[in-house]
Design goal:
Helices cover 38% and strands 16% of the residues. The radius of gyration is 14 Å and the shape is globular. The protein is built from four helices and four strands, in the order E-H-E-H-E-H-E-H.
Length: 138
């Protein structure tokens, strides 16, 4: 069984969506973790947009990377440039590091429709990435 870490700045939105998709898609091939270099709690917009795709992330928690320093990861996926640039040393022996800077829907200001569209855009990008990752890496 492989160990996969999804890392973002606050572990509230993009990493949580990726965690949800990877958990759903990986079919018991891996243990999925998500963390941040900070913790911001779950973003309600991320929870809602995932529920629209029948994935429940309400039980997820916002975790700090330090909680997983003893886990030997096979893959470390950073989902934002800030996390990649500020990621602390993670002592996994041979983790393959993968970076993909996803659009941050939590930064969008505007109407409810504009915010929903932003979360939908990010969710769809993350879903396609996760589908490819599971198909090619797991």
């Amino acid at each position: 069984m492989k160990n996969v870490l999804v890392l973002c700045t606050g572990n509230s939105c993009r990493s949580q969506m990726a965690h949800g998709y990877l958990n759903t898609l990986q079919d018991d091939k891996a243990t999925i973790y998500s963390a941040g270099i900070e913790t911001h709690g779950l973003n309600p917009g991320a929870v809602a947009i995932m529920q629209e795709d029948a994935i429940d992330i309400t039980h997820h928690t916002s975790n700090h990377i330090d909680e997983y320093l003893d886990v030997n990861f096979d893959y470390i996926i950073t989902v934002c440039d800030h996390a990649k640039e500020n990621c602390p040393y993670i002592p996994s022996k041979s983790a393959e590091r993968i970076h993909r800077n996803f659009f941050d829907p939590s930064k969008v200001q505007g109407t409810a429709t504009e915010k929903h569209d932003a979360f939908l855009k990010a969710r769809n990008e993350i879903k396609h990435f996760c589908e490819d990752f599971v198909a090619t890496k797991l």
